[in-house]
Amino acid sequence: MSLKNVNTVLVTAVTLFVLYLGLSFILAPEASTQGVGLPNWPAGNGDGFLIMKGTREFSMGLVIGILLVTGHRRALGWVLLMEAVAPFGDMINVLAHHGSLAAAFGIHGLTSALIAITGLLTLRETRKAHKAHKAPAPAPAAQPA
Q1: Is the pTM here over 0.85, yes or no?
Q2: What CA–CA distance (Å, rounded) separates 57 from 3?
Q3: Of 61, 92, 126, 133, which residue is least crowded by CB atoms under 10 Å?
């Protein structure tokens, strides 16, 4: 199996997971928050913040999916690296609020690492094509008289 095929499978899995996560927080915010590592959940109208998290996740999934479907592989790699920052930030948030270490590292940290690795693999896949595109065309050989 080629690196491009492996990356396509990985990116598809990331896309579906992020879209699922986003929709879960939008459609059922209180049910979706169990086990993400924070010790206390917002009371009252706090679910509005969770819906905002869902909207963020869903839009991230759309961006990844659109780049995948349209074949913009190099941009896809860079976007995956950028989007790995979101679960990393979630990990820092859980740690800062004295949440579960297992959830901070096992859920958010691992997710961030997997997305970043997928981005790096996608950039590696596109490196040769990118270099070939930037290289100047060779000069035509001189013809004998």
Answers
A1: no
A2: 26
A3: 133
